[in-house]
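so the lab meeting is tmrw and i was supposed to have these ready like two days ago... anyway. pasting both below. for each one the top line is the aa sequence and the line under it is the structure tokens. i havent really looked at them closely yet so no promises
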Amino acid sequence: MSCLKNKKILLGVTGGIAAYKSAVLLRGLLKEGAEVRVVMTEAARSFVTPLTFQALSGHPVHTELLDPEQESAMDHISLARWAELVLVAPATANFMAKLASGQADDLLTTLCLATTAPISIAPAMNHQMWLNRATQENLEKLLSRGVVCWGPAEGDQACGENGPGRMVEPELLQQQVQQFFTQGALSGVRVLMTAGSTREPIDPVRFIGNRSSGKMGYALAEALSEQGAEVTLVSGPVTVSPPVGITRIDVEQAEEMRQEVINRVAQADIFIGVAAVADYRPSQVADEKIKKDRQLVTLELVKNPDILAEVASLDGAPFCVGFAAETENVEAYAEAKRQAKGLDLIAANQVAAKEGGFESDQNALLLLWQGGREVLPMMSKYQLAKQLVERISEQYHASRQELVNTE
């Protein structure tokens, strides 16, 4: 039986070109047995007619806050109480702004204020609108209130430009809804993690970096989300697309990554440091491009903060998982790192091996914790991530139980 059988989902459609995808999403949810009611804003009706959604769902589409006919059948408070999940897809920048400021000037925003059901949004807008500071601040407000953000995806946009802002494809949104209604091993657990590399500037065009692609970290974020975790990913530059259903914070430098982590770690139950953070940065950054007419250029490097060690040393620190990329004596170096930093679990791999490591789609890991070890053999990074999440979940819940027993 589908996990969506008889689940009550309120689908909000706002005024973006991606509104046509909402019809595909509606059809997929209905096919899985969900009960869906559709609410459309005035702007949404400029892109897709209510008749489309009515024909697909078999139910009247709700459009007006004070429509006497709709009020007699199911008023806006009853509709808000009916829903087990409110999903707004697409969610425009304007809708996000209104929801963040608590406005209730149409049926959809009123329902969002009146409901006690979880609210999820699937943003869709031009990439510059998405990256605009106002939109990002509105997103921060919504996330702090428990609103879940699925997306956006990156790619070609209706305006002809390319970047983050596309609504997540209906099939992937349907998967997210299914995961929402499936209680995973980490359901409700808040995970903060880092991934990717960092770039430490030398001058306006050059930087010190490393070969980390972000593939392992992003696969892990996806696997965590599938187990019900609320994932916030602080990411350096990567070569992979972000998973659906997580909150991603983009940074470049190690200090920026540290600041974003410290700002959020108090709300985390688990912290996972996957990012290949640069150990050093130039002590001075040239204001202009360094010309190549010199035969010798000397860089003075200073040590970057150790984000993982700092988090693990905090009072009331979350369950801490670290990664160790080594070229030799993997187990000895990884165990020394685990003990020195006070980590609950460390995952180590040999990056100089013929298989796995940076940029590869496969990897193998050695897991070490207090009194235990396990080898996860070479496999795809996604499959590896799923197994690693199982071990993290086991160790995390065991540590919580141990804490309860000692109180």
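ok protien two:
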Amino acid sequence: MTRLANLALRGMTLVSKFLLIFMLAKLLDPEEVGLYGLVAATVGYALYLLGFDFYTYTTRELLKREKTEWGGLLKSQCAFSMVTYLVFMPLLLILFAFDVLPSYLLGWFFALLVVEHISQELNRLLIAISRPLLASCVLFLRTGLWALLVVGVMFWQPASRSLENVLMSWTLGAAIAVVLGAGSLLRMGLGGWRRQIDWRWVWSGIKIAIPFLLATLAVRGIYTLDRYWFESFAGMEVLAAYVLFIGMSNALMSFLDAGVFAFMYPALISHWQQCSANDFKRQLKQLLLHTAVFCLLFITVAALVLPLLLDWIGRPVYQEHSYLFGWLMAATVLMALSMIPHYALYAQGKDKHIIFSHLGALLVFILSVLVLAPFNTLLAVPAAICCSFFVMLVWKVLAYYLLTPVEYQMLRSAA
């Protein structure tokens, strides 16, 4: 029953995120949809600067220690987060000082950034300490329920249709998620809260987290720079079409993460650790098959449904630039396929090449935009994303074949 409830909550979260972007396109002016895309991408990127991917270190440390020590570790992580706030919050003000984002959104931006960061860390922590249902509740409040509510209100109350109301609802949803997650954590009776902050432990975590942070920032950088670059080429109204179509194509990754990768990659790691070559290859083949089938089904359904949805939205800008969807869908499929050698390398602890492939993809994206923009400004960004993710896919596949023992290699044994 618990697992069923967990899956139901995650399913509703995915559906609500998918529904939100289409309803915003229907109910808001295209300029506001484009601006929403910029804010969402910037908040998503800034979260990694504030969090520093430190959770990759903390969760592993928690699982190695007794609950009587957990409070001290979490206290030290909170102290480190205060440092990142002091460093990066003032830097983010530059976005408003130079009108990259409009000044009237400054308050909502920073309020949203704080509650999103705290709720994200609580969600990760609850997953790590085996509270999956509670983690799903926090996630649903943070990204799902508020979206359903604000869409309903805007649909029935035209006067409420504004970007500020969307951001206010998002902030309140994440704040309620913080209250639920923090309250549940305090009720666990964790010990160690009175211990002094262990800055030496923090520094050890920083050194471990930095490589993962660089890899994450590289990929997230592509999905943040793309919106700003596209807006500079095409304007805020056409950016709305880009935001709609990239939101739709990225839904593929969300569904794959929840329905395929989350269930299959732990077994891949287990087979590698148990030195079971046949099981490792079998699991990798199933991962490839499930990913390919899911991609084909998603593309087929999207191709059939998209024209109907665009007619329902009824705004010419989305129909005129519907060609963007094909490019962005191709980029997402390349990203999805790259996750197969990604998890194979991750299972072996070959993190270095994952990091290099992500950094290389960011460099290829930047260079591709600079090369393609003089020829076609509207296609330069989506085509550059395809180029970068193709390079990332090839890099990971080559790294897998060069670094994996022959007896574990899936495709050669199949041949």
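from a quick look at the 2nd one: The radius of gyration is 22 Å. The chain has 16 helices and no strands. will dig more after coffe
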